[in-house]
């Protein structure tokens, strides 16, 4: 059970505090309710670009890392389709340093052509290294475009085209910042060896005078139900043929999400899972195969991806995947197997919660979903899934008309 207290400042900033006297550390997490789904189709990659720009200097801090390192702290950030998240850990007595740094960059960045150019180059190099020059690097560009026709999940977080980042202007960057980087679009969570009242006082001191900006109400185009099988074949200079199959699944807060997630664990939860045992160990069709779900707030995807053993034909490999998928749609999974998967999920969640920073992030994310206390229901939501529900949800999801498949052929 993660206990916490909650308060909202007059400017709309939500402040959550989780006290844990067992550690000498404190963690601070600032979640901004903006991700790549909020970008314009002709200016993608901006949320990720901003993650980098936030470390390029703010109004009173030229280099973000220096004061934090002097205070014994560490920091990082990440961007997803749904959120942009910044966090620090440091000795609890030095926590105010993190408040100063985070509030200063929320108040205003040190916008300049030089800063934009530096971070633009960093992001462009990352794009080239991981998505253009890396084997299989363009998979998620192609797969998202195939699976999504309307929703902005159709492009990856890095952006749809490199040109969108290369052409970003300072005015575009400023507009993005003032649109989304404001207290009424953020959630601040502090956890560790702290006192709630002291954190509230620090929040008011450092963030209270930052004006709210009334971020725009999110009005995203909804992805229509997929009613036909989609496929794409590509050929590239990669070592092995690969196959990527996706199916649309419920959104994060919709009924059936947890059943869908458990279905991926049954298929690919470790070396005792069905896909590994059948297709890697016994039939030796794949060198590796995985099933997972994207975990997005809006309706996401279940993905099965595998690299074929050299010499195995693509149609044989796909038929083997389809056979294993059909087994969880045709007959109810035994309680024993489902319990085994649930136990693994429960252990994973409970182990993750031993980390202070993980608890901090989870509180912020669940507050974004509607109520931070939902974090304490996560395990029970999985445990409540019955074999009957899993069968019904699998039958609903794993139909050919709901599937998009990318066939990635090796030139070698």
Describe the 3D structure.
42% of the residues lie in helices and 19% in strands. By secondary structure, it is α+β, with helices and mostly antiparallel strands. The strands form two sheets. A six-stranded mixed beta sheet has the order 1-2-6-3-5-4, with helices on both faces. Strands 7-11-8-10-9 form a five-stranded mixed beta sheet, with helices on both faces.
Approximately what portion of the residues adopt beta-strand conformation?
15-25%
Class computed from helices, strands and strand pairing: alpha+beta
Shape category: globular
Biggest sheet: strands side by side, in what order?
Answer: 1-2-6-3-5-4
Q: Helix proportion of residues, in percent?
A: 40-55%
Distance between the termini: 53 Å
Overall mean pLDDT: 95
What's the multimeric state?
A: single chain
Number of strands: 11
Order of helices and strands: EEEHHEEHHHHHEHEEHHEEHHHHHE
Please give the radius of gyration in angstroms.
Answer: 23 Å
Poorly predicted ranges: none
Total discrete domains: 2
Q: Count of helical segments?
A: 15
Strand count, sense and barrel status of the largest sheet are: 6 strands, mixed
CATH architecture title of the largest domain: 2-Layer Sandwich
CATH homology superfamily of the largest domain: Metalloenzyme, LuxS/M16 peptidase-like
CATH topology of the largest domain: Cytochrome Bc1 Complex, Chain A, domain 1
What would CATH call the class of the largest domain?
A: Alpha Beta
């Amino acid at each position: 059970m993660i206990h916490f207290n909650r308060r909202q400042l007059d400017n709309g900033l939500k402040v959550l505090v989780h006290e844990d006297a067992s550690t000498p550390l404190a963690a601070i997490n600032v979640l901004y309710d903006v991700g790549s789904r909020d970008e314009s189709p002709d200016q993608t990659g901006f949320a990720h670009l901003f993650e980098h720009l936030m470390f390029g200097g703010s109004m009173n801090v030229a280099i973000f890392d220096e004061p934090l390192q002097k205070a014994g702290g560490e920091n990082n950030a990440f961007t997803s389709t749904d959120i942009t998240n910044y966090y620090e850990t440091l000795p609890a007595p030095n926590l105010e340093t993190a408040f100063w740094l985070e509030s200063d960059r929320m108040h205003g960045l040190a916008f300049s052509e030089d800063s934009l150019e530096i971070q633009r180059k960093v992001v462009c190099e990352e794009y080239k290294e991981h998505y253009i020059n890396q084997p299989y690097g363009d998979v998620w560009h192609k797969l998202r475009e195939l699976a999504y026709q309307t929703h902005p999940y159709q492009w990856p977080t890095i952006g749809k085209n490199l040109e969108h980042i290369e052409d970003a202007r300072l005015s575009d960057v400023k507009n993005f910042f003032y649109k989304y980087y404001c207290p009424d679009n953020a959630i601040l969570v502090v956890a560790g060896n702290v006192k709630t009242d002291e954190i509230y006082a620090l929040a008011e001191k450092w963030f209270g005078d930052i004006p709210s900006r009334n971020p725009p109400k999110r009005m995203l185009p909804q992805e229509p139900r997929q009613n036909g099988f989609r496929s794409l074949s590509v050929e590239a200079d990669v070592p092995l043929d690969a196959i990527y199959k996706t199916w649309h699944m419920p959104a994060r807060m919709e009924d059936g999400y947890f059943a869908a997630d458990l279905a991926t664990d049954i298929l690919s939860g470790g070396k005792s899972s069905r896909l590994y045992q059948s297709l890697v160990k016994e039939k030796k069709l794949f060198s590796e195969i995985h099933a997972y779900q994207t975990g997005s707030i809006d309706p996401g995807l279940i993905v099965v991806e595998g690299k074929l053993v050299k010499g195995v034909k693509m149609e044989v490999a796909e038929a083997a995947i389809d056979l294993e998928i059909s087994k969880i749609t045709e007959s109810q999974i035994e309680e024993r197997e489902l319990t085994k998967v649930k136990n693994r999920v429960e252990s994973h969640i409970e182990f993750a919660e031993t980390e202070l920073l993980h608890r901090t992030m989870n509180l912020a994310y669940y507050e974004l979903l509607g109520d931070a206390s939902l974090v304490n229901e996560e395990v029970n939501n999985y445990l409540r899934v019955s074999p009957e529900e899993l069968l019904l949800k699998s039958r609903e999801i794993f139909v050919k008309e709901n599937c998009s498949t990318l066939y990635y052929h090796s030139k070698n």
